[in-house]
Amino acid sequence: MYYREFEDDSMGKKILVIDDEESTRELLKLSLEADGYEVRVAEDGYRGLEIFEEFKPEIVLTDIKMPGLDGIEVLQRLKETGEDVEVIVITGHGEMNLAIKALQLEASDFINKPISDLALSVALKRAREKIWMRRKLNEYMRNLEEKLKDAVEEINKRHDFEHKLIETSIDGIIANDRKGNILIFNEGASRIYGYTKEEAIHQLHVTKLYPEGEAKRIKKKIYSDEYGGPGRLVNYETTAVTKDNRLVPILLSATLIYEDGTEVATVGYFKDLSEIKKLQQELVQRERMAAIGEAMSEVAHGVKNILYGMKLGAYMVDKGMNSGNLEKAQKGWSLVKKNIDRISRLSLDMLS
Fold it and tell me: Shortest CA distance to 176 belongs to which of 159, 164, 162, 189?
């Protein structure tokens, strides 16, 4: 099936023949070399193992029955080396039990004596097919390992990036499971709350991050459609309770996390509004002071006019009295009273 399709024609071309019969060794050597194989021979199992270490053949042909180290023992020792080698055992008539034992010990095949060219050719073809398949499998496994390694590296890089993204976020990021146990507590959250990551994860329950009852109210709002839900909470103003029991205004956005359709966690994004609230108060104060300044300017202008009117009225009274002009004095006094009423109303307006 694969014999003519081997990509590397040199594959399986190094053969070691182990047989105690010289005629068998020489016959196999001549036949195999004629077919293009590189052949070494050994007269017994011990010598065969020595040549194997030097020659590193891919196929070994060994007789089963030999003095000293027999073929079964040679097969076992070759398999123990861990080398990729196919072993074909040569058996005589009546040695089927030994042949079966050899197959159980992972021999590639067996052939009977006297050895026919066809039987030898088929056995070698099977051995080379196994070598080819094993190499292809090893190549596939190496490629698979490389792809797996690349995939793991990519996952680790992505995980590291996401971890850094969470940890270095200016805003606080906190995740908790359905029981309220904290799973993620980044540096931004530590800046807001004053807890370390370890303290938050190992010692805190999510309800401790808010005033009493607020955590439950937030969870209800996440399930409702009031702030972008259900399943989400967008730009909800609330209050955080810090480690030293300070109340910090925050803007909270949150979302539910699902696995296979089941809710497993909640992730919240916290923005500290302290500076914004402070700026808002300063802006209100500035607007108020500007309004007061504007009002005082108007008051000063009004008071100036009233004083001018009173001064004119007093002047007319004084001139009228000195000249005996009662009418002029009365007009002056009327002007004084009129401006006294005006300053009274202005004073009441300022007090109100």
Answer: 189
My answer on whether omega of the bond before 249 falls inside 30° of 0, hence cis, is no
DSSP code of residue 4: G
Residue 208 pLDDT greater than 50, yes or no: yes
- Contact 45/73 with Cβ under 8 angstroms? yes
pLDDT in tens, 131-146: 999 889 989 999 999 9
* Choices 3.20.10.10, 1.20.1050.90, 3.20.20.70, 3.30.450.20: CATH for 172-272: 3.30.450.20
The model carries a pTM of 0.50
Q: Which two tokens stand for residue 332?
A: 């002056």
- Can you say whether the dihedral through the CA atoms of 24, 27, 32, 38 is positive or negative? positive
Assign 77 to helix, strand or coil: helix
Residue 94 DSSP SS3: coil
Residues 218, 238 contacting (CB under 8 angstroms):
yes
Placement of tokens 């992730």 in the chain? 267
Identify the H or E element spanning 312: helix 274-323
Homologous superfamily of 3-140? Response regulator (3.40.50.2300)
Six-digit token pair at 43?
């007269």
pLDDT in tens, 255-264: 999 999 999 9
Cα 52 from chain centroid (whole Å): 51
Identify whether the C-beta of residue 14 lies closer than 8 Å to the C-beta of residue 59: yes
φ, ψ of residue 10 to 5 degrees: the values are -80, -10
Burial of 156: CB neighbours in 10 Å, binned 0-12, 13-18, 19+: exposed
